[in-house]
Specification:
Layout lengths: L4 E9 L3 H11 L4 H10 L5 H19 L6 E10 L3 E6 L5 E6 L2 E9 L2
Antiparallel strand pairs: 1-5, 2-5, 3-4
Length: about 110
């Protein structure tokens, strides 16, 4: 019998993928309660949207797949780059430098402990 996996997606979050990936690495493989505690105490800007995403994945597991929220583990979490908002910043002597405002797509999967 294959394991059930519940997913949640966070799209177009206005934080660069590199910054989100740091928070992803902190919670990968942890139990849901542990991951929530880590996210609450992490002073990174990505931790707040990641906490909402984790809650969403747990709700999906409970309501759609009938899993027990107490036995859930974060089995997979990753961030991929989204579209880049390109802006211009005026510089000296009529030049303009481009500023890239990066976005991310985050996917989080939870499954029950074996």
């Amino acid at each position: 019998m294959e394991k059930k996996i519940a997913k949640a997606h966070l799209r177009y979050v206005r934080i660069s993928t590199r910054k989100v990936q740091i928070v992803c690495d902190l919670i990968r493989g942890k139990s849901v309660g542990n991951a929530m505690a880590i996210l609450m105490k992490t002073p990174k800007s990505a931790s707040e949207p990641m906490m909402k995403l984790l809650k969403s994945a747990v709700a999906n597991a409970e309501n759609n797949d009938g899993m027990d929220p107490a036995n859930l583990v974060v089995c997979e979490v990753f961030a991929t780059p989204g579209p880049i908002l390109k802006r211009m910043m005026p510089r000296a002597q009529g030049r303009a430098f481009r500023i890239n405002k990066r976005t991310s797509h985050v996917t989080l999967c939870v499954t029950e402990k074996a």
